[in-house]
Amino acid sequence: MKKRILRLPICLALAICLLLSCAQAAVAPPIQVQYTGISTFSASLNIDGGVADCASRITMTNTSNTGILAIHLQQSSDNKNWTTLKSWSVRDSQTPVIALEKEYSVAPGYYYRLYCTARVYDPNGTQLGFNTQYSPVRRYP
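Above: the chain sequence. Below: its structure as tokens.
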């Protein structure tokens, strides 16, 4: 009888420890975005008065590399299927930061976002990485 009484609390304690360890394992660590050839990559979209302010910026990890930064302004009526309205790009080298900012008139009643790409090449022209970044979706108005 004494052994049964001792077994029950021990079994309950073990079950609680097992459940707690499983719950902790189920919580995934935050995902960290890994970029190739760049250390930071941002995309920003603001819409005011029917004009979309589109901006993106990268910081390359090596100033001897060349970077190509492209911004694609996209539109959607349902926030699911996207069409590119306008694209811009800039190519630069020998500088750690490449930035691109453009304005574009947009129509009311749609969702908008930026799809930005950054390609990085070494001094020999070999592509080191292709990176992508999306801005938050904005609805206008």
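Strands lie at 38-48, 51-60, 66-76, 83-93, 97-105, 110-121, 127-134, 138-140.
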